[in-house]
Amino acid sequence: MLEESIDETLALSAQSQTRILELVDMGASKPRTVINAAVVALTRGQILFGSGDESGADSTWQAALELLDLSANSGLLQFAIERQLQVSLNNESASTLLDARLAEAGFNDPRYF
């Protein structure tokens, strides 16, 4: 039962990865679309990582960063999601910089730390 659930989750996450890459290719720039896709990619990467696919997780997280780079929105929520992605990719220098930006702005939402 658990194995079937994991397989279903991986299949759904593969569909979300396809959509994320489509958004990157389209140059998506609607802030809410970009944020939602980045959150989905963050979660997909965590699923892949947890299932042992570290390479797939890294490429998913990298695609999410590319998508965030396309967005003109650089609000605190975007910085918080980007920080989580950088932490997931073990990019300490980028995540530390984002930590400082978020702390300076008083952003301390526990969902993103």
**Biggest sheet statistics:** none
What is the strand tally? Answer: 0
Q: What's the oligomerization state?
A: single chain
- Going by CATH, the architecture would be Alpha Horseshoe
Features:
113 residues, mainly alpha, Serine Threonine Protein Phosphatase 5, Tetratricopeptide repeat, 78% helix
Explain what the structure shows:
The protein is mainly alpha-helical and 113 residues long. It has a single domain, classed as Serine Threonine Protein Phosphatase 5, Tetratricopeptide repeat. Helices cover 78% and strands 0% of the residues. The chain contains 5 helices and no strands. It has helices at residues 2-26, 31-50, 54-70, 76-88, 92-104. The longest helix is centred in the first third of the chain and has 25 residues, at 2-26. The mean pLDDT is 82.
Summary?
By secondary structure, the chain is mainly alpha-helical. The protein has helices at residues 2-26, 31-50, 54-70, 76-88, 92-104. The model has no long low-confidence stretch (mean pLDDT 82).
Write the layout of secondary structure elements.
Elements: H1 2-26, H2 31-50, H3 54-70, H4 76-88, H5 92-104
Helix pairs in contact: 1-2, 1-3, 2-3, 2-4, 3-4, 4-5
